[in-house]
Amino acid sequence: GDSVTQMEGPVTLSEEAFLTINCTYTATGYPSLFWYVQYPGEGLQLLLKATKADDKGSNKGFEATYRKETTSFHLEKGSVQVSDSAVYFCALSDQDQAGTALIFGKGTTLSVSS
Amino acid sequence: DAGVTQSPTHLIKTRGQQVTLRCSPKSGHDTVSWYQQALGQGPQFIFQYYEEEERQRGNFPDRFSGHQFPNYSSELNVNALLLGDSALYLCASSLDAGRGETQYFGPGTRLLVL
Questions:
Q1: How confident is the model at residue A99, as a pLDDT?
Q2: What is the pLDDT of residue B97?
Q3: Where are any strands of DSSP class E within B19-108?
Q4: A46/B102 Cβ within 8 A
């Protein structure tokens, strides 16, 4: 079945460091790909998305490119801030399904110190 | 414009009891999905409702059931509660317009089963 694999955390960085969180997926069809972020005690917020191969999603300095050949959607940011500390989830929605359920990875905790 | 709202925010039940969680979607959205998020894990898809029908279901037992009302709000019911049902239950709403549509999440209901 469909699945999403994220790099294990936690990821600990200093402010202004470069961030990469790896995400790979397995899907039978051509999924849409998403990154969601969860701040402590809150629900999930969409960070960015890409709906077809080679699309680049970007928001708040974060970006990720949909790579069909490597089935990947890695999240990057050039300079992290303390306020970026949160849990990041990679997810997919597979068009072969009747609905639009999201399948999530296990999440990667990011901790940024000043 | 109100986002996705859920009630209650917290709930404590004992094994064997039944629980009902409620969700109001974002204005204009017609699709509601429910997810279970265990501590330290990614959300797991329970089911999705569209046009008052269950359109897609994840790998959850029949103890988990739901309903969608004509105003698109939704309920999640869990019967015969088990300790393992303790989790954050997230509701997400979206517009049924394709795989790439964003699902907007509510803050969740935290259920503790004793």
A1: 76
A2: 64
A3: 19-24, 31-37, 44-50, 53-57, 64-68, 74-78, 87-94, 104-105
A4: yes
